[in-house]
Amino acid sequence: MPLRWKLRDVILIRIEEQEKYCKVFVEAELTIYGITQLKENFRPFISEPRELEICLADVSEIDSSGVQLLLIVKRERQKLNLSTNFTDHSKAVLDVFNLLKLTSILYSSESKA
């Protein structure tokens, strides 16, 4: 059974674990209002040794707090030489990353060295 974390009865993330990778489905708004809880939910994935895939298909809204969280997860995992990929970007995610000229981060594919 997949793990789920909740904030005010709203499912925030769903986790699908495989032998070689871990896929995290973000099922929430990535905004200032829930970012503290989401940050805590993402903390265990910083050091997850498997490839991490973060699915953004169900993100209906994102602000600078959400962008910062995604960038922090990616940066901290890069420091540990761990792979992180963002997949299935919602329109909201694409719009904000386009506005900030950060789309290359969404599409960068990494592999462990």
Describe it for me?
The chain is an alpha/beta fold and 113 residues long. It is built from four helices and five strands, in the order βββαβαβαα. It has a domain at 30-96: STAS domain (Transcription Regulator spoIIAA, 2-Layer Sandwich). It is 34% helix and 24% strand. Strands 1-2-3-4-5 form a five-stranded mixed β-sheet.
Quickly list its features.
alpha/beta, Transcription Regulator spoIIAA, 5-stranded mixed sheet, 4 helices, 34% helix
List the helices and strands and how they pair.
Layout: E1 4-7, E2 10-17, E3 21-26, H1 35-42, E4 51-55, H2 64-79, E5 84-87, H3 91-99, H4 103-107
Parallel strand pairs: 3-4, 4-5
Antiparallel strand pairs: 1-2, 2-3
Helix pairs in contact: 1-2
